[in-house]
Design a protein that fits this description.
Length: about 180
Amino acid sequence: MKQRIFMYLFIFTLLFVVFQYVNSKKILEEYESKISTYEEKVSTLEQNLVENQEMIEQLQEQAFNMSQFSLEDSDAAMTYFEDQGYRISDLAPFIKDQLYETNFAERDNHPIVPYAPMTDGKMMIDAIRILNHKWIIANFSDGKYWGELLISYEITEEKELKFELIKSFLYPIQVPS
């Protein structure tokens, strides 16, 4: 009888060990699969992080380059206007508004844009960038044709703005091949 008890005990122990082994193996394989999945995700996220850091560096460089030619970031231009009693925070929007108002001139041709409209539209200034205390660059378009302007401006003693076209460029139309 003792021998049977030991045999049953041995078989039970053997089954228990086999069960534990199989169960542990499944758990281990599951953990390894989760780890490999997480490693792939980490690798993807690291790659995205590197790409995003490169993009951030490019955007910072672009922002720096754009700030090089800006009225608000030019100490010399700000000092020039402040010495004349103007506040840059009020002056920059005023200059832009005055230039945009030229879009609504009564005559057919724009007073600054040297090109006649080639469509039913009117040549109008779309975007303006004040470079410093003397120059402005602007984009213009009639809806189909577009170009760029380099404009000089000055504020007279009567506090009037005078614009003078320095140079202009009309982009050629791209004919599809």
